[in-house]
Amino acid sequence: RKEVEQDPGPFNVPEGATVAFNCTYSNSASQSFFWYRQDCRKEPKLLMSVYSSGNEDGRFTAQLNRASQYISLLIRDSKLSDSATYLCVVMRGGFKTIFGAGTRLFVKA
Amino acid sequence: GAVVSQHPSRVICKSGTSVKIECRSLDFQATTMFWYRQFPKQSLMLMATSNEGSKATYEQGVEKDKFLINHASLTLSTLTVTSAHPEDSSFYICSAQGTSGGGGVETQYFGPGTRLLVL
To answer: Which of A16, A55, B70, B90 has the highest count of CB atoms within 10 angstroms of its CB?
Structure first.
């Protein structure tokens, strides 16, 4: 079993839709959590950190449930430019960083 | 956010040659940098953790003699693919540990990557 698991998708949604991605992690010692976005043939870019209290950045909302070892990302009012692969990232023990395989999102007009 | 550069962005070489890739943190000092490899439609795979002034820590299955890492300063790490073969063709990405946002959360900032094609 992978330490960080994501549904690979792809998620195909129309513009304006709300879409949610889930991620689970297996190591309870995990300390920090992030969502990254990776466009095709590009490097990953930090989208947002994820906090237990939940955090929002514009159309993006991230949630962390430590008890269930579960992270989520909600995208509201999807734009064509949101099409990308979304990586769930977990950090533990200093610099040890584990990447999920990513969830692919296609937003269509 | 923090800026990481990587050079070259793309390289094509003949089998048997060595290729050096540079990773620089431009606006912050990074005592730790990371090297990843990504094959098409697959996730990032950590190859090694590069520590300034000391030997790199390689992940299981990564040949240290084939992938030479040097972290000579707080802003520069290099990866040299020695005696490259076609199966080494991949997208190589470096990252540097930095601080994100006002909360001071440590995270990784990625370079733009290097596409290596070995003929």
So the answer is: B90
| Tokens read off for A74 | 């909600």
Q: Which residues of B touch A100 (CB under 8 A)?
A: 43
Which secondary-structure segment (H or E) carries B6? strand B4-7
Which single residue is written with the structure tokens 């395989």? A101
pLDDT digits (tens, 9 = 90+) for A35-66: 999 998 888 998 998 988 889 999 999 999 99
Pairing of strands B10-13, B114-118: parallel
| Token pair 């939940």: residue | A54
Residue among A39, A89, A97, A103 with most chain B CBs within 10 A, to mutate: A97
Single-letter amino acid code for the residue at B112: P
